[in-house]
Amino acid sequence: MQPYELSVADAAEAIRARRLSPVELVDSVLDRIERVEPHLHAYVAVTAEQARSSARAAEREAADGTFRGPLHGIPMGLKDLIDAAGTATTASSWVRSDHRAEADSTVAARLAAAGAVLVGKTHTHEFAYGLITPQTHNAWDRDRVAGGSSGGSAVAVAAGAAGFTLGTDTGGSIRVPAALNGVVGLKPTYGLVPRHGVTALSWSLDHVGPLARTVEDAALVLPALAGHDPRDPASLVTYPADQRPPRGTDLTGVRVGVPRNYYFDHVTADVETEVRRAIDRLEDLGARLVEVEIPMTRYIRATQWGLMVPEATAYHERTLRTVPDRYTEDVRLLLEAGELLSAGDYLRAQRARTMMRQAWTRLFDEVDVIAAPTVPTVAVPAGQDTITWPDGTVESVSDAYARLSAPANLTGVPSLSVPVGHDRAGLPIGMQLLGPPLGEFELLRVGHAYEQSEPARALAPVA
Q: For the whole prediction, is pTM greater than 0.90?
């Protein structure tokens, strides 16, 4: 096994035991990037020299017996919305072609302090305003979409071109590409991970979180990211009390909610089969399955758009007027559409969101977690714009991908996407676990138990 094939947990153990040096690990990942990047286009920029310098520093610390924790010497990528001092943050847009970050974002600074090594900035759908990431190819099939907007981050992990990455999630942008590329994606509780130094799409919906090969890896990354930062007005002072890495497979006493509505509507047969099989596996591990009714489903799409569109337009107001030609057409049209929404529309969306949060709070009185599909279908072929369901309903690809992930953004609850199988063509399928605010540990515990009960997953079969 090559070093780039190691999970974060296994690489961390090898580094601590001095069986592997950070230099060897980073060199292996950089070599892997060089081999797969021409096929996948996961990275906007690769910071090879900076990474090798950081790896040498991590190796010197290890030689002196100093370890900063489980991320010491681990190579990672940052979505190109996240500032890292001295590197460009282009948001994969010509609008930002001249930008260079003067200081680290909070999350970049915290990862550096934890000993992680930045190997590059990963592609996003322009300004995170989409669920495709057209620059990047799916790690399992280059003719299919990577998902978005954190498509580059998911593909890099799936291909072994990073130990872990960070993405952002406004309507599913961590979990959607994670599901489509067969990796783990965690959208934490709103406000748990500070967004200072991260380019915004929608202030009231944006989250930052990790993408990783395993649930255990995501659990190792989260503590390095979480914690209050007064520079983010939404940053929580409260912090989850339990930060232990998940262990074991016994889920006795855990109440798993299985939606009887919404989440299994308009999903492909393969997705439903694999997710229900995974839910049955949770029951085999001791969990108690409880049917639940998802509240206020008819308002989800309108509320998501009613919040996201005007907030995004407000953020881009100046550049939309001065350099509109620098945006791609799909993003420019969405930003212009935001100018047509009234203040009344926005306030009604805020009111609906408040009611939705209250209803979901009551829902988690009945269950500890909810298990459902992450997305209703696998990665579609690049260039496909719509999905036609068996009943004749036609849905845009972006709406389909956001439909099942948006509720967690509207309510702010944590959500974890875990790979649970493949369709008949061999494309990955993801199961989404949702929990109450600050319920990350329980999500990670359930996801890890499922993962440990299944055969180990391989990297995507990239040439």
A: yes
